[in-house]
Amino acid sequence: MPELPEVETVRSGLALLLADRPILCRVQLMRADLRAPIPASLARRLRGQPIIAVRRRAKYLLFETPAATLLCHLGMTGTWRLAPSGDERIHDHCYLHFFDGRRLAYRDPRRFGLLDLIEPGRAEEHPALAGLGPEPLDARAFTGAVLAERCAGRKVAIKPLIMDQRVVVGVGNIYAAEALFRAGIRPSCFSGRVSRPRLDALVAAIRAVLLEAIAAGGSTISDFRQAGGDSGYFQTRFQVYDRAGQPCVRCGAKLRGAVLGGRSTVWCSRCQR
Ligand SMILES: [Zn+2]
Q: How far apart are the CA of 189 and the centre of ligand 1, in A?
């Protein structure tokens, strides 16, 4: 499943492709639903509209036009690509045709993705986006103080807490494990027991691992494709994720593995307290 860095990579690729604000001449839907029905009015509402921005909120892409915003979640296998005439593929579910002759294709073999419409300026009211926590890369919205507020008195372990989208968005299993290792915090530590300086370090570590993944172009856990059709790539080696039983890169101790909050978790019992 694409995580935040992959979605951000897709967003920046699309934003670059659509920087000249091309005008949609036709939205061609090849089916009526993905994980949920696609609004019947989607094609009509977007026709004739320029794409004025491509934004991201959590793992959702927002194609903004003056009339409405096209909301897209990539689900497990969703991809966008520039698809010239003749490049039609099985599992292409939506084509955006532009007046300049270009065409974007949304392809999603497993169809866990989502295409929906949002009224202008109403994004935060959409059921998928309402109640989401701050963006981890927003240094003003996501701080040690904000995280401390969410942790206060909580007996839930810190790893599931930072993976809770109401606390902070877009920190998936891989990035949670890596950030906790860097911050030296044991994943099972009660959230309310983590001191403020350690929470500051955790916020910085979350931001750093996500930024490194974005810089590397996202990871290749699934069959994710970047906008434009190139394979995603993530050259940074994970320090703990998927490395249970192997030596800690810092101290050499054998990394521990367990299931925590329903997710596989790896940590170093010497480096993480
Ligand atoms: Zn260690």
A: 16
Is the Cα torsion angle 4, 206, 166, 172 positive or negative in sign? positive
- Tell me the pLDDT band of 221, cut-offs 50, 70 and 90: very low
The CA 181 to ligand 1 mean position distance, Å, reads 9
Domains for the chain: give ranges and CATH numbers.
4-125 (3.20.190.10), 144-267 (1.10.8.50)
Rg (CA), the chain: 20
- For the chain, the maximum distance between any two Cα atoms, rounded to a whole number of angstroms, is 61
pTM of the predicted model, to two decimals? 0.89
Residues carrying an active site annotation: 2-3, 59, 263
- Helices and strands in the chain: count of H runs, count of E runs: 6, 10
Distance CA 152, CA 233 (A): 38
Distance 5 CA to ligand 1 centre (A): 26
pLDDT digits (tens, 9 = 90+) for 42-80: 999 999 999 999 999 999 999 999 999 999 999 999 999
E strand or H helix at 53, and its extent? strand 53-57
Cα of first residue to Cα of last residue in the chain, in angstroms, is 30
